[in-house]
Amino acid sequence: QKEVEQDPGPLSVPEGAIVSLNCTYSNSAFQYFMWYRQYSRKGPELLMYTYSSGNKEDGRFTAQVDKSSKYISLFIRDSQPSDSATYLCAGTSGNTPLVFGKGTRLSVIA
Amino acid sequence: EAGVAQSPRYKIIEKRQSVAFWCNPISGHATLYWYQQILGQGPKLLIQFQNNGVVDDSQLPKDRFSAERLKGVDSTLKIQPAKLEDSAVYLCASRDTRGSTDTQYFGPGTRLTVL
């Protein structure tokens, strides 16, 4: 079992939809969780950063961590065509390397 | 603030040839990472530097891959000899350890094709 599992998609939604992206992880030592967005032929860029369990909101984006079920979610409200990208989740214990999921490819159709 | 610079952006070589990639991190960032991202996968750490010292190279195939970070700034990653399965995007990232953030900033990557 990989440490971070993520459905690769692709996921296609109409503009304005609420998008839910999810990951599961197996390493109980993970304390820090990140969501990166990666546009085609670009490097990943940090979107959201969460410590331990709970929710974090930033504009149209909400990151949610449930450590009891080892489940990570990213919600995108009012999705836009510019949100079309690959979304990568990642976890770390803090002093170990980031472990990434495979990424979910999202297309938002105008 | 300038981002992480990488060159070349694209490279095509034949198997058994050698190749080198260059990375210039964000000014002042002490931590530098090299990742390998195979198509359809997430980035996988190859090596982590803190200044000019290696922190973690446990996933670096040392029989063919080498990396250095002279003077604690720029870094080069070399593959010699290349294999078909080395075809991937090689990403460099840097992190500022002076603050509380754990944010890694990624460069655009070098896309390597091994024929």
What does this structure look like?
- The complex is a heterodimer of chains A (110) and B (115).
- Chain A has 110 residues and is mostly beta strands.
- Chain A contains no helices and 11 strands.
- Chain A is globular and about 40 Å long.
- The model of chain A has no long low-confidence stretch (mean pLDDT 93).
- Chain B is mainly beta.
- In chain B, 0% of the residues lie in helices and 49% in strands.
- Chain B has no helices and 11 strands.
- In chain B, strands 2, 4, 5, 6, 9, 10 and 11 form a 7-stranded mixed beta sheet that branches.
- The termini of chain B are far apart.
- The mean pLDDT of chain B is 92.
- The A-B interface holds A 4, 6, 8, 32, 36, 41-46, 49, 88, 90, 92, 94, 97-98, 100-103 and B 4, 33, 40-45, 48, 56, 91, 93, 101-109, 111.
Give the termini distance of chain A in whole angstroms.
Answer: 37 Å
| DSSP helical segment count of chain A | 0
Overall average pLDDT of chain A: 93
**What is the beta-strand fraction of chain B?**
over 45%
Count helical runs of chain B: 0
Radius of gyration of chain A: 13 Å
Major sheet of chain B: 7 strands, mixed
Strand content of chain A: over 45%
State the secondary-structure class of chain B: mainly beta
User: What Rg of chain B, in angstroms, do the CA atoms define?
Assistant: 13 Å
What overall form of chain B do the CA principal axes indicate? Answer: globular
Q: What's the number of extended β-strand segments of chain A?
A: 11
Layout of secondary structure:
The complex is a heterodimer of chains A (110) and B (115).
Chain A: E1 4-6, E2 11-14, E3 19-25, E4 32-38, E5 45-51, E6 54-58, E7 61-66, E8 71-76, E9 85-92, E10 99-100, E11 104-109
Chain B: E1 5-7, E2 10-13, E3 19-24, E4 31-37, E5 44-50, E6 53-56, E7 65-68, E8 75-79, E9 88-95, E10 104-106, E11 110-114
Parallel strand pairs in B: 2-11
Antiparallel strand pairs in B: 1-3, 3-8, 4-5, 4-9, 5-6, 7-8, 9-10, 9-11
